[in-house]
Amino acid sequence: MWASSEFNFVELDDEFATGSSMMPQKKNPDVAELARGKAGRLLGNLTGFLATQKGLPLTYNKDLQEDKEPMFDSCDTVRLTALALTGMVETLEFNAASMKAGADSPYLVATDLADFLVEKGVPFRTAHSTIAALVRQSLDSGDDLASLVQNHEELGPEAAELMQPGVGSRRNSHGGGGSEAVATQLEALREHVGQLP
Fold it and tell me: Which architecture characterizes domain 10-100 according to CATH?
């Protein structure tokens, strides 16, 4: 999805994609799609393994001979899929300009605008409907959403401040999309990866 022309956030290396049989301009993310399929296979192996153990008493039983095939298949599948995904990620080219434009889209703050109204005592359902109507008006008419917010009787200049570029960086709760939260998540991932054998 992020590599599609609608987003244009990343470009896959040709080694990890194939051309579309119908659309010459399109790259199919083969490795990502196959990895998604392999995840289903792994879940199937896990389900089979758990079902094999469902009625076993406390000691070794011959039923457990059935755990070897899915276990070895799962290990091979994870190893090969991880190698393919590593190559795909290492060769991704990121389009920072498209990502910045996407992050600065005025529509990304629609929830923040609804939250603004809720903080003013408006019930969320009403706030949601109000912001949805403004977004719809902006999309249909081509009017700038920030101007519509600025001139709205319940929103005004204070709410329009929420529409400044980079406002998403304020979402710094655990797992949030703000720059501090993302930096914390990246550091935790780097630490975790550094501990892997």
Answer: Up-down Bundle (1.20)
